[in-house]
Specification:
alpha+beta; 2 domains; 217 residues; M1 Pyruvate Kinase, Domain 3; globular
């Protein structure tokens, strides 16, 4: 569903507190390697806006979802699942439901660089990162060089584990839900299908917008 911009967040062993704790499983896909209902199957999910009733307690708060028509549903309400279709049912996992790693990062320069490759001005939300960093060297794709290093951001640190291999979800515009296949094509041809990086928590702590980023090791 729609991404949420945060001014501050606590980072734990399972990534950002409250991040990707809920998911919808497609009917008949329970035994598959990828049972989730995502933008791949339903681009209109970008128009569903989740929020915490108690933002200060994201791990325990009730989660509400505003639909494109403006209705509000508790995420566990069967009516929401019916509206989403695909025979979907909701589940929750306290450790989070991630494709690969609990954290992801991209630099604003990399977003500009791939926009140039795709010949389109791309919204950073299209790439669904947890962290957007302004690289001091001003170079696009500099985060590739951080793989294997530990970064300190505010009160937490994380190990950059690997480059992020992209799929067709990057083609979906977060504003309109329209698809632009040239985006993934540009990443495939110019970046070996990889953009941004995955990471995992080394030490837990608070991160706020504007915190500095440093390489520890």
């Amino acid at each position: 569903m729609a991404a949420q911009s945060l001014d501050r967040a606590e980072i734990g062993w399972s990534g950002i507190d409250g991040d990707r704790r809920w998911a919808f499983v497609r009917e008949g896909m329970e035994r598959s390697g990828f049972p989730w209902l995502t933008l791949r199957q339903a681009p209109e999910l970008w128009q569903y806006i989740p929020r915490f009733v108690d933002p200060a307690a994201p791990e325990t708060s009730v989660t509400m979802v505003r639909t494109p028509s403006g209705e509000d549903f508790d995420v566990v309400d069967p009516a929401l699942a019916r509206e989403l279709g695909h025979g979907a049912r909701v589940i929750r996992q306290k450790r989070g439901i991630f494709d690969a790693f609990p954290l992801s990062l991209i630099t604003s320069q990399t977003v500009a660089g791939v926009s140039s490759l795709a010949d389109a001005e791309l919204d950073v939300r299209r790439f669904r990162p947890n962290f957007v960093v302004d690289a001091s060297d001003g170079r696009s794709f500099t985060e590739d060089e951080w793989v294997g290093r530990v970064l300190r951001i505010g009160g937490m640190s994380m190990r950059v584990d690997k480059r992020d291999k992209r799929c067709i979800t990057v083609n979906v515009d977060p504003v309109t839900s329209g698809k632009n296949p040239s985006v993934l094509r540009a990443i495939a041809e110019g970046r070996e299908s990889q953009l941004g990086v995955y990471a995992s928590t080394v030490s837990q702590g608070l991160v706020t917008v504007g915190d500095g980023v440093s390489i520890e090791a």
